[in-house]
Each structure stands twice: as C-alpha cells, then as structure tokens.
Amino acid sequence: MSDGPNQTEIVDVARTADPSRGSFATNFGFIMAAVGSAVGLGNIWKFPYITGEYGGGAFVLVYLGCIAVVGMPLMYAELIIGRRGGSDILGAMRNLAPPGSAAGRLLSYLTGGMAVASGFLILSFYSVVAGWALHFVAVSLGVMPDATLGADGTFKAVSGSKSLSTIWHTVFMILTMTVVAGGIHRGIERLCKILMPVLMLMLVVLLCYVGYTGGLGQSMTFLFEPDFSKLTTAAVLEALGHAFFTLSLGMGAMVTYGSYLKSEQHVIRDGVAIAFLDTLIALMAGAVLFAIVFSAGLEPEAGPGLLFITLPKLFVEMPFGVIVSTGFFLLVVFAAWSSAVSLLEVVVAYFVDEWKFPRTHATWIFGGLVWALGIASACSGDVFDFLDNVTTRYMLPLGGLAIAIFAGWFLSEKDQVSGFVGYGKIGKVLEFLWLVTIRYITPFLIVVVILSKTGALDGVLKETPPEQAEPAVESVESGESGESGESGESGESGESGESGELAD
Ligand code: PFF
C-alpha cells in the first residue's frame, strides 16, 4: 500500500466547503464522532437482545457478513458524498449530481428531504428511550426512589408515567441541543473525544467484572459458537436491517459528518475503523449482558426487556450492584447521547447550509420541535411505535437504497474513486469491488429487506420464528423474559413500548 493519495490533486477537485461551516480538527476527533454516532442504543440494547432471540453464534456471523457486504460499501458511499459534496445531505447530493441530470437532482431532493425528516423523527423517540436510561442512572444512584415493585418494576414505573418520561426526555434533549449548538469542533468533536474512550474503558471494566463474577465463558460460547440449525430467513433479514441502523446509515448522518472532513485521504481507513469499533462494542456489550444473564441461570431470549427489565433485577443481587448498575446505565446514556447529537446534526446542517440559519438558532428551534414531537412518544406507546416503525423499517432502508443508487449510478467517476486514489493496485481492486457492490448487490439486498418488511415476500420466505411474531410492546411490558413476573403499578395507560428497529 502506498503512502496515501496525492493530497493537492484531491483537494483541487473536491468542492471546497465554506470554511465558516466548521470542521473536525483532527482525524481522531472525526473517528470518535462517527463511532459516537454509530454506537448507541442499537449496540447496547438491540444487538444483544436480537442475538439472544435468534440463537447466538450463527446470527452473529451473518450480522458480521452484513456489515461487510452492505454496511461498509454504504459507509464509504456516504462519507465520500459528504466530503466531495461539502454540504448537508441534500446540498451535497445536489452538488454532485451530474449537471443537467433532472433525475439526479430529483433523487437529491427526495433523498435529502427524507433523510432530514428521518433524523427529526428518529430523534424524537430515541430521546425518550435515552431518557429512561437516565432514569435508571438516577435510581441506581439513589437520587430517585426505587420502584416499589423492585428493580425490574422500575421500567414500568418510568415508561408508564407520562410525566416522568417527558421530564427525562426533556433533560436528554437539552443535553443533545447544548452539544450541537456548540458546533462541530467545540461541541460534537469535543464531546465524543471524551465520551467514546470513557465508554470503551467502562465496557472493559465491566468485562473484567463479569469475568470475575462468572458467566463469561458461557456468554462467549453463545456469541461465537455458531449453530446453523437455529438460523432462519427472518434472522438473516433482521441482521441486514440492523447493519444499517447500527452504522447510522440511510439518513445522511455519515454524509453530514463526512462533509466536515478536510480531505478524503483517510475515508477508507476511517470507514473500516468506524465499522470495526461499532461491531467490537456491540460484541462487548453482548458479552457483558449474557454473562450476567447466564451467571444468574437465566436464558438469553429475554427480548427487548433484556436491558431494562432483566438486568436491573439481576444488578441488585450482584456484588457492588449499585456501582455496576450506575456504570452500566451511564454507558447506555453516553452511547445514546453521542448518537442523538448526530441525528440532530443532520437536521441542523440542513437548515444552516440550505436556509442560512445561524447554527444556534437552527439547533434550538428544530431541536425544540423534535422535543415537542417526542412528548407525544413519551405519552403514547402508539405514537412511539408508529414513528419507530415508519422510520426504521421503511425510511432508513429507502434512504440507503437511494444513496446506493446515487453513489453507484450518478456520481462522477472522479468522485467515486477519490477515496481509493492513494492505494495503488489494491485501491483499483477495492474500487472495482465497491462499484459492483454498490451498484447491484447493496440495492438488491435492501429491496429484499424492504419487501420482507411490507410482507410482500411472506409466501417466498420461511416462517418468522415465534419471538418475532410477538408485538414488541407487549414483550417489553409483560417482561417477556419469564423471570419478571410482577407487573407494573403505574396505572397510566400511556406506556411507551418499543418496536421497529429499536425493538422489533
Ligand atoms: N447507530 C445508532 C445506534 O446504533 O443506536 C442509531 C442511529 C444514530 C441511527 C444516528 C441513525 C443515525 F443517523
């Protein structure tokens, strides 16, 4: 591999972004911010429980394949569109569309509009879930009273209370808006440069802890010993869908972050690092969670309630349970915070770049609107489920499809190859593989995922396993894991359940 591309040549041909937009000061800062976006509730909540539901090792293997075949090519596509387009998602695509191509322009507007809407809608309910994690931190620290029905009743107490859910959602949105208002370098980069290493350190400490308290061996076997008899078509589709969500693809988060890069010199290397760290963190979180579950003699198929119902109950019985519980839920909050920041940044960048809003105004106005919409999700499980389903089942995959088509068929060759330039012969091979994948394989697989979610392939594909058929809301609320027998006491009906990508 050669030293890297000829910097001047590349900078010359790239659109020079407006310097007042801000940029990441260091490459490390960019990687931490992008990893911060990727690592979120998807890693610490969703990955472990879907792995539990789909039987462990074989699912993990398919998931790794999906990250490689769908995730990484799309990650490169998003970063290169952002970097070369030098603007928000809509502007970047419009800037790069072939001159005079009505289809290219139309695709830019449709994809950009949908991506901004996705960021707006996803953040509204993502923040509610992050708020619940904040509540668990407060309860673990003793700042808030414990639920009378015990640790596993705490989830019912918060998700069933409209006022409590709204308060925590408000706190979380203020945290998110404060960072985004601070700008790319002083806000997002600074936060993620601290949060991500702390998060990884906390995970390592937790791994050592479960190594000591027991269950780690069993957990590793569960995660890494594939049993292909457990693999179903539904599991493969789930793995594919999750690869998107976990890498923050399909709604322009990586396009937006890519637009703040100073050069495309390291896009390939950075993309690989982001996907690698995201996967590593998901696997570490899974290893910790399952070790706790196994050491308590429980089964791994707890479903969406694994994080918020099963674990809190086990924490109280563990040595140093208060510290472990606080640390663990802080970890969830940190992961969600750095992801939420990227969701809001997609929206804010759009209004700053396209409508010339000052950053602070855009942040507080549109963050405020997200907050207002989030109250509906905090108060109604139906709104929550609806938004979750529409965005993560349809909008993200559709966004990914549009970006793949744009990158594969509309980008100029110069833009397409710019990230591969400095890699000599290997670069040429990678370039060819990427082009074939992004033109044919990625779109095909995404169409299969979308069709399967609409039920159009029901006759063609095998049955979904029983766990999948259950509506997620019920799984969470009834503590489906089987060991949280008690039901919540909050009589309020507004329980927010989760489904779709977050918990379907
Ligand atoms: N990747 C985040 C997670 O795994 O929780 C979720 C996410 C963040 C999706 C940002 C999309 C996005 F733009």
Q: Could you outline the blueprint of secondary structure elements for this entry?
A:
Blueprint: H1 7-13, H2 27-38, H3 41-53, H4 57-85, H5 89-96, H6 102-140, H7 154-159, H8 162-181, H9 184-213, H10 216-224, H11 233-246, H12 253-258, H13 267-295, H14 305-315, H15 321-355, H16 359-379, H17 381-410, H18 413-417, H19 424-454, H20 466-469, H21 472-477, H22 500-503
Helix pairs in contact: 2-9, 2-13, 2-15, 3-11, 3-13, 4-5, 4-10, 4-11, 4-13, 4-17, 4-19, 5-6, 6-8, 6-15, 6-16, 6-17, 8-9, 8-15, 8-16, 9-13, 9-15, 10-13, 11-19, 15-16, 16-17, 17-19
Can you walk me through this structure?
The chain has helices at 7-13, 27-38, 41-53, 57-85, 89-96, 102-140, 154-159, 162-181, 184-213, 216-224, 233-246, 253-258, 267-295, 305-315, 321-355, 359-379, 381-410, 413-417, 424-454, 466-469, 472-477, 500-503. By secondary structure, it is an all-alpha fold. Helix 8 (162-181) runs antiparallel to helix 16. The protein is globular and about 65 Å long. The structure holds 4-fluoro-L-phenylalanine. 4-fluoro-L-phenylalanine is lined by residues 37-38, 40-43, 245-246, 248, 251, 253, 339, 342-343.
What is the overall pLDDT average? Answer: 87
Shape descriptor reads: globular
The number of helices is 22
Catalogue the unreliable spans: 1-13, 464-504
Topology as a string of helices (H) and strands (E) = HHHHHHHHHHHHHHHHHHHHHH
List all distinct small molecules, including ions and cofactors, that are bound in this structure. Answer: 4-fluoro-L-phenylalanine
End-to-end distance = 43 Å
Number of DSSP-assigned strands? 0
At the fourth CATH level, what is the homologous superfamily?
Amino acid/polyamine transporter I
In the CATH hierarchy, the architecture is Up-down Bundle
Instruction: Please estimate the helix content.
Output: over 70%
Which CATH C-level class is it? Mainly Alpha
**Fraction of residues in β-strands:** under 5%
Total domain modules? 1
Radius of gyration: 22 Å
